[in-house]
Amino acid sequence: MKLPPNPFTRALRAGEKQIGLWVSLSSNFAAEVVAPAGYDWVLLDMEHSPNDLSSVLGQLQVFASTPTTAIVRPEWNDPVLVKRLLDIGAPGLLFPMVQSVEEAERAVASTRYPPRGIRGVSGSTRANAFGRTSDYFAQVEEETTVIVQLETKAAVSQAVEIASVDGVSGVFFGPADIAADMELLGKPMDDAVWELIRPAAGKVMELGVPVGTLVQDPKFASELLTGGFTFVACGSDTGLLSKGADKLLAQVKRGIE
Length: 257
Prior knowledge:
Blueprint (H helix, E strand, L loop, with lengths): L6 H8 L3 E6 L4 H7 L6 E5 L7 H11 L5 E5 L5 H9 L4 E4 L5 H10 L25 H8 L1 E6 L2 H5 L1 H5 L6 E4 L1 H7 L9 H16 L4 E4 L3 H9 L4 E6 H19 L2
Parallel strand pairs: 1-2, 1-8, 2-3, 4-5, 5-6, 6-7, 7-8
Helix pairs in contact: 2-3, 4-5
């Protein structure tokens, strides 16, 4: 048995536009609702949701039967957690709050076996079909997506250096936290935020490194993808549910005489 290719990793390398969705409901049942939609990628979030290893595993199993690649965001740049996520078969990781070249290097190292990194070795995991994948150790580094998230002004100022770290598959700009760091808490779409992000993103693109982000405006998501961003999440499962519930109730209330 051979390790299957990671379509998201390969799409990023090829510069193919990838439309994504944030998945925070922490339920394999909810994941089954989203999975047939046909997004190129989803982000299973452990940082700002009640997800744990067991719930992430269930969702990975759901998306494994679809063309959608499920990337996982651990709650921190923690090599122990990363090891466990990779062992349960996470095809890629988005590391939050990467602030420096050293932190980016640590993130990459946690996804690599020695001598290139510090990932612990297990011969029988879900990731290698419990020992059946004959080329797992040789190929997993090539297929695993490693994305670093920049969330402060200081990190954005080092975007080029961080993007240049060997093993980084892409750079993700987090507008909500960047806005907070700019004293614009709750205003991720403020012009000042994007006036900071866009030039840094452009320099990263010039290196040939894919750039991504999360926005809640589908029109703006399309604009970013047209303008050079490679992978953009255009909403979240929680947002779709809350807005849909509010809209439905408002429509019924308006119809009551």
